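Quick question about two entries, pasted in order.
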Amino acid sequence: MATTGVGFRWLDLLEKEFDKACVELETCLTELESEDQETMFCGRQKIATLSSCFAQLTHKALTIFQNSAKLEVCLK
């Protein structure tokens, strides 16, 4: 179960870092918004796309970790 536990902790840390980076990027975009609104809109769309892709990847990884945990329990 140790390997699976590491996977869950890794995933949790990765999600927190991603969320922190998105918030910081959004803050930077907000500060620049008055200069070029079209660029800011495009930037926000890209952030939304990245977030969606990351969420899907995270969900898939979580499913794999859960299946691995179940298999480890069955093998013991």
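Here is the second entry:
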Amino acid sequence: MRSRTTFYIALGRLLMVDLGEDDEKFESFMAPITSTMDSVASQLVAVGNNAFQQEETKRTLVGLCRDIRGLAFAFNSKSSYMMLFDWIYPTYTSVLLRADRMVVP
């Protein structure tokens, strides 16, 4: 699980070689992460605050955070970092904030 951050740092750096400011490439690269984040968000809506009591949801969320952390480390230009920020905010910020309040004691 801890290798995911390193893996996404490497993937992010490879993406940066070819990315430039191409939003379509970024969106297609983020598609698996987007679908997983949408799944966690729907679990949160369906189950409510008890969603983070389930171990599978916790592991999924921790993995997503490791993936996003790896990408944030790899994206070292303003345009690429802003693409990542625009992806997170405002769509997934509420999920991450609720997760922080629920998972961290």
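Reply: The chain has a mean pLDDT of 84. The first helix runs from residue 3 to 19. Hope that helps.
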